[in-house]
Amino acid sequence: xxxxxxxxxxxxxxxxxxxxxxxxxxxxxxxxxxxxxxxxxxxxxxxxxxxxxxxxxxxxxxxxxxxxxxxxxxxxxxxxxxxxxxxxxxxxxxxxxxxxxxxxxxxxxxxxxxxxxxxxxxxxxxxxxxxxxxxxxxxxxxxxxxxxxxxxxxxxxxxxxxxxx
Length: 165
Description:
Layout: H1 3-18, E1 21-23, E2 32-33, E3 40-44, E4 48-53, H2 61-74, E5 81-87, E6 93-100, E7 106-107, H3 110-119, E8 123-124, E9 131-132, E10 136-139, E11 146-148, E12 154-156, E13 160-163
């Protein structure tokens, strides 16, 4: 059994024992299917977005949870909460995370995003949508992943993040 398989079986067992297992056939009960990306299928509810994560980018549940903690430190207005695990019994286990829904928002422009990230203490790099502050490197902060609401506030709803060692 690989480390990944052990992580999957442990997560499934823990979720079932503690009541946060979501059979894959019940995922649609989370909300209306929304836009999906490389790593997440989304479900839109009245006040939240649920992301069912396939671990394609992070590679493990532990790595995803670390990324969530970093996101929550950098972008507290769009902090994720762990919601549960979805999956098929004895097979794939996918973490489900919940994020507040940003009302009446549309994609931010790159100028807005760069200004916002600078206000958070990040410098842009030579790659579009990539920023660093010496402690973290954040990328994929582009219009599809950053929203602006009616009041002009910016919300980063999805980004890739790593700690600089």
